């Protein structure tokens, strides 16, 4: 363990209201070490293609990291989300627990998302870990976004509530599935964002629902939709910026791509209220003529200057796209990373916010495995 495991996390909560600690106060920074493309999990040979996909991570208040991904184990038994754990800042990982479908009998199949509650919601205390995901049966005939919770740092998981249900899990216009949950606490509520194909006016749009107790959910509210039925805005992620604004990132199937680099240019919107993205301006990420495409992810770090740093990943690039001007559309800069591109790599700002963890679980249709990189923010 080389002493790293005894390193204390900063005395600040891992929250969406992240703030740099005052100089000279509290425990000193943890030693986060850089490494690239470390293997977390190599699937057994009998796994189904793509074996792994869509990795996600969360950091607990004590610095422990958890990771999960779509896990294509042979069926039966029904599929589940594995939970791997790292106590050395992402360098080594071990199988820790599993999140299993205990309500549908279908499996937890697609699009997991991990989130540490930064404050209590209902009976769920601050620090509770939530795992949202898309439950589908083996024949993909239904989709259902369910939430599970762990009150013991990820060891055991229990079903909490279901946010949204849809039709078969096929990503074609005219089908009616729901996809890709992302969670965010705003004030005393939890927001669940997801992609929604149930509105006959839109092939796919982006919606959210809100809860104040994690049991009862409000009605779906639009976040992004296109006047062109065939267009498919998808895959919401959201980051809170230093000025208190929220940045919503998404792929915009059919959206205008000034670089002609593909069908799913990465777009974003900025709003003061993360429940009101629908009315916000749509902007495309364009770093000097390079427009990233597909399955994006966004985080914000307080490091990197007065505005901190917005970091964006997309399937099209191993690089990340960085903005230190609070999302100014002319201020995106592309930087190299040592972590190979993947279908929806996840980003995590470490407890030392000078460092970024990038996790990838491979490409659509790939013969995949799960790997991660920890690197200094490339603009520092
Ligand atoms: C912070 O963002 C604002 C708004 O885009 C910009 O005008 C300013 O130059 C940025 N500050 C730094 C230090 O980059």
Which class of secondary structure composition applies to the elements?
mainly beta
Unreliable runs:
1-28
User: Strand order of the main beta sheet, please?
Assistant: 1-24-23-22
Instruction: Provide the CATH top-level class.
Output: Mainly Beta
Any idea of the CATH topology?
Answer: Neuraminidase
Alpha plus pi helix count: 0
Number of strands: 24
Strand count, sense and barrel status of the largest sheet are: 4 strands, antiparallel
Hetero groups: 2-acetamido-2-deoxy-beta-D-glucopyranose
Query: What is the rounded distance between the termini?
Result: 28 Å
Mean pLDDT across all residues, rounded? Answer: 94
Keywords: Signal
Protein name: Sialidase domain-containing protein
Key features of this structure:
380 residues, mainly beta, Neuraminidase, 4-stranded antiparallel beta sheet, disordered N terminus, binds 2-acetamido-2-deoxy-beta-D-glucopyranose, signal, Sialidase domain-containing protein
What can you tell me about this protein's structure?
0% of the residues lie in helices and 41% in strands. The protein contains no helices and 24 strands. A hairpin with a 7-residue loop joins strand 4 (81-86) and strand 5. Mean pLDDT is 94; it is low at 1-28. The strands form 6 sheets. A 4-stranded antiparallel sheet has the order 1-24-23-22, with no helix packed on it. With 380 residues, it is an all-beta fold. The chain has a single domain (35-376), classed as Neuraminidase (6 Propeller). The structure holds 2-acetamido-2-deoxy-beta-D-glucopyranose. Residues 1-19 form the signal peptide.
